[in-house]
Amino acid sequence: MNTTKGNPLALLPFAVFLATFLLAGIVTGDFYKISMLIPAILAAVVALLLNRQETFSNKVEQFSKGAGHPDIMIMVLIFLLAGAFSSVASSIGAVDATVNFALTYLPQNMIIVGIFIIGCFISLSMGTSVGTISALAPIAVGISAETELSAAISVAAVVSGAMFGDNLSIISDTTIAAVRTQKTKMKDKFKTNFFIVLPAAIVTLVLLFFITLGNTSGVTAESFDWLKIVPYIGVLAGALAGLNVLAVLFAGILLAGFIGFLSSDYSVIMFMENITSGITGMAELILLTIIIGGIVAMIQYNGGIDYILNLLTRRVRTKKGAETSIAGLVATTNLATANNTIAIITTGQLAKKIADDFHIDPRKSSSILDIFSCTVQGLIPYGAQLLTAAQFGEISPLSILPYSFYPILIAIMGFVAIGTGFPRFKRPSVT
User: Fold this and answer.
1) Rounded distance, CA 242 to CA 49, Å?
2) Could you tell me the residue ranges of all domains in the chain?
3) Residue 167 neighbours by CB distance under 10 Å
4) Contact predicate 427/173, CB 8 Å
5) How far is CA 41 from CA 14, 84, 106, 250, 300, in A?
6) What is the pLDDT of residues 46-74, one digit of tens each?
7) For the segment 111-125, what is each residue's pLDDT rounded down to a tens digit?
């Protein structure tokens, strides 16, 4: 069915998906008011109605193959375990313990810098930027109330820390999607991505230090249990050691549950309830992933992927140009969907084709996808991250943007990595 030049009409489902989502957001004034499942289902219907030369049964079969592709199913399994781990760890007090640990040992005159560092660790451990913001933003707002610092600076530090982990955490849905679509290893992507964005984190620390110089906070840390931080450390260590991410997450759930059992107020029933709530909390993302997998399969079958590939790369002659096109593709999609995970899932297959055609290492292509999607997600005022932070601070999302150093800096470092060809890989990545 596919031709070299492709078929632009095959992209109609994608256009319907974006148009429906944007229209719903504009009409309601809230881009998260209506579930993204609605535009996804409409797009799936359109995908199945296209190409009248094929029987409906054959089109359903093609859709189902895409929805049930092994990469999609592995992604689903990881989402399930990641949701369960995050829920159990949070319920035993791991987040509170981490926050109070940091507040205990940080100097009072570096409290905003400390908030950024706490945000980095929590988001790296939890794999959710919105969850990190929900946990830390109230503390940041309280700090701003006790100092001369504006709430915008305080919550911006939280958002920056949250996006650090969103981009790097092994249980972040963006990282999972980037790794699976580009067919690389989690630890390899982490190392590549980390060294690209490390300078951005360091510069963010320096900027936050200087703009808050001379301000102190009277925030008093509460007591904490060191043991409750162990599940996060264990998951991070296991991932960096190169263990299978499914095994790491399963072990993390058991470890968090065991530590919870050591306390008098945690039971097996609570453990099971936390696992269930964590899994069900990922339900919408899982359904979206499956449906989009089917839509992308239909778009590819009808020639849409080939059309975009030719459109994006017909004037690209170099690897740097191809990497830039991947960055632009995921960033533009993220602007439209206001969801960096969906942006990666939607564009991942096309990015993989571009990477293969121009011999881009999958460690680099997965990092580019994750970096530029997180840049957009951390800066759009209608995204969940800034909306959540603004709500806690009782300020406008736009007032946070001037201090959103990290999302801006990772984009700069991403372009530097593309322009300089960093990092230099000594061996090809294999899954």
Assistant:
1) 44
2) 8-420
3) 32
4) no
5) 11, 26, 49, 32, 18
6) 999 988 888 999 999 999 998 888 878 88
7) 889 889 988 988 887
